[in-house]
Amino acid sequence: EGQLVESGGVVVQPGGSLRLSCAASGFSFDDYAMHWVRQAPGKGLEWVSSVNWDGSSTYYADSVKSRFTISRDNSKNSLYLQMNSLRAEDTALYYCSTITGDPNYWGQGTLVTVSS
Amino acid sequence: HSVLTQPPSASGTPGQRVTISCSGSSSNIGNNYVYWYQQLPGTAPKLLIYRSDQRPSGVPDRFSGSKSGTSASLAISGLRSEDEADFYCAVWDDSLRGWVFGGGTKLTVL
Questions:
Q1: Cβ of A106 and B88 within 8 Å?
Q2: Strand ranges for A1-116 from DSSP E
Q3: What percentage of chain B exceeds 70 in pLDDT?
Q4: What CA–CA distance (Å, rounded) separates A98 from A28?
Q5: At A102, is the pLDDT very low, low, confident or very high (cuts 50, 70, 90)?
Q6: How far is the C-alpha of B81 from the C-alpha of B40, rounded, in Å?
Q7: How far apart are CA B94 and CA B71, in angstroms?
Q8: Quick one: average pLDDT of A28-33?
Q9: Which residue of A has its CA nearest to B86?
Q10: Between chains, do A102 and B47 touch, taking CB under 8 Å as contact?
């Protein structure tokens, strides 16, 4: 059965940087576009970024554009999110997901807290 | 303020049928498939409906999705206590060149 496992979430100061990782297993990772979705404490879901199957196309929410970079390494079945110039409003649980399709996969999330 | 509008709350009694709406525009719902997710407390979202009206394997047929114009709906029939959760719609937006989620609807089973 397919699985996604995120890692890299920590407490970081405003203006700092962080790299999140998402390890995929049990399914054909390179068959899927991949996405990062976040959820601030007590709030709804917010799409952050997407990358197509081979990494040649990337998309970003306006709130993170020019600060975050999504990438993937299909040889390692891994998805990444490089987060720079972090702000308090970036504090959230970050999920990696396939979003669409059947079967559908979501990780358990990794918590990023931006605080001084 | 979300691009997709959902009612913040919905409720029903066991056995009832409940519908949750998701209102958008021609650049999103009007031109693309809608996806629905259920998020139980403390857990990751789970896909309930894809391509507007398709159920993933394992999702009970009590859950159904529909789309008309720039609006979509999720219907839950035979409501059960374990259906109590937050529900989100999502769709690709051609103008924003990104995915958008509705603000979420908290379903309470009375």
A1: no
A2: 3-7, 11-12, 18-25, 34-39, 45-51, 58-60, 68-73, 78-83, 92-97, 110-114
A3: 99
A4: 11
A5: confident
A6: 12
A7: 16
A8: 95
A9: A44
A10: yes
